[in-house]
Amino acid sequence: MKPKLTHVVAFTAFAGLAALSAGVALADDDDCRVPMADWQPREAVIALADENGWMLHEIEIDDGCYEIEARNREGRDIEVTLDPRTLAVIEIEYDDDDDKARGNRRGPTPAGTIAPPANGLFENATPPQVKSN
Fold first, then answer.
1. What's the CATH code of the domain at 92?
2. Whole-model pTM over 0.90
3. Best label site of 9, 37, 57, 84, fewest CB within 10 Å?
4. Is 115 within the bounds of a domain?
């Protein structure tokens, strides 16, 4: 049995629309499409981080955007996506948001705020003693 021409046309149109919508879904919203000649220099990214009080760890290029990893004034680790032409902030992600989503709502404990365990290893600031039987 041969398929009717209308079935073939309908299937082809459906397949084309499915492929087109899949391509749109794969496109990332924070892709930057700026020619390299129009990019702000790396020094401008560093200056922007300084102005915002971000302690810069790394500058990368991801999907055509500047992406920086830093620590903000409050001590939170952040990942900031910047438009390379204007240095406008496209997105800020807080790295500890993943911890909160997993149930660690308090975040990391600051150093020196928890007493050592009372197991005899940390008394009087002496090094631990190893005993073997």
1. 3.10.450
2. no
3. 37
4. no
